[in-house]
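Form 7-S
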Amino acid sequence: MNKVQAGLLRSALAASRKSYSPYSDFPVGAALMADGGKVFTGCNVENASYGLTVCAERVAIMKAVSEGHRKFKALAVVGGRDKAVPPCGACLQVLAEFCDPDLPIFLAPLNKPNQVVALSLETLLPHAFRLNTKH
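Output:
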């Protein structure tokens, strides 16, 4: 595991501790690195009206975009108890709006943060819907 990957995973794990997940008891943290190296974190935020729940990955990317960042280098997601879980389809589609298909995504479970699975955005969402054909 390289320093960038380890740092992102540490940031994602720390973000998962801020999760508001009283309904699912399924905390998730994400850390997204922008092109310049700045890291944006997010945690899942649930709501009694469950459809209004927001995933950690979307929180992180919305924070980054709201601060003017549009290009990203890597994403780490820490969630699940004993097995890493990938971003949901909605999160993958939002990532596809701003990220190249080869964006590395590092996944690790909460209880075993050193058991990392590395995939690309394209592997997880091979047929992303895109209006912008630059990707």
